[in-house]
Predict the 3D structure of the following.
Amino acid sequence: MTINWIKHWTLPCGTGLSSKALLEIAKDVYGTDASPEMLNHAWEKDKIHYALASAEQQPFEGNTFDLITVSSGVHWFDIDQFLIEANRLLKSKSWLVLYENHFIADVQGSENFPHWFLQVYLKKFPSPPRNNAYAWTNENLQPKNFNFVGEEKFKNAITFNKKQLALYFTTQSNIIAAVEQNQTTYEQVEHWLDQELALFFDHADTTKTINFGNWIKYIQRAN
């Protein structure tokens, strides 16, 4: 399906994977991110318009977009300021879609994994502060010219071996923050994970199916 009238902006676009997906339905796709390193590795630069910008201050004219999507990033924003900016940029009755794919420690056949994740992993690598308690309610959103229309929640399953799961963990903000604060190195983290995950993987080629949590929030500009 191609809908040529859609002008779409996604953020934080990172290397453009979420932006690339929208090429199937949007004529013009824009992606912004606050990280120049991410943008340097962005996909489809000949088809997607990339820019360096924070979520709260974008380089676009007002009343520009039919759709704004945020992939796994809204918890890092000053959300009230971002909503002011989204209201400025969206056309009347257009859509803001927020979505998240997150690790929920749901490993099929490993009943002890949630305990390890909460009591060992997260105590060694706690999550950095983030805005997970924002009130996505009409009481809060309507004064900002938005209506909360609905939310979907679901799971998706991915198969990992021990090395793949360890590498996935090194992409989480928990470990990135610890490395950036010089508390550890990636080499030390990978060695620790290799030892710890051996509790759940008998051999290097053993695989586990892991369910990830997902939610999608549908928010519409009121006028």
The CA atoms of residues 105 and 113 lie 7 Å apart. The chain has one domain: 54-221.
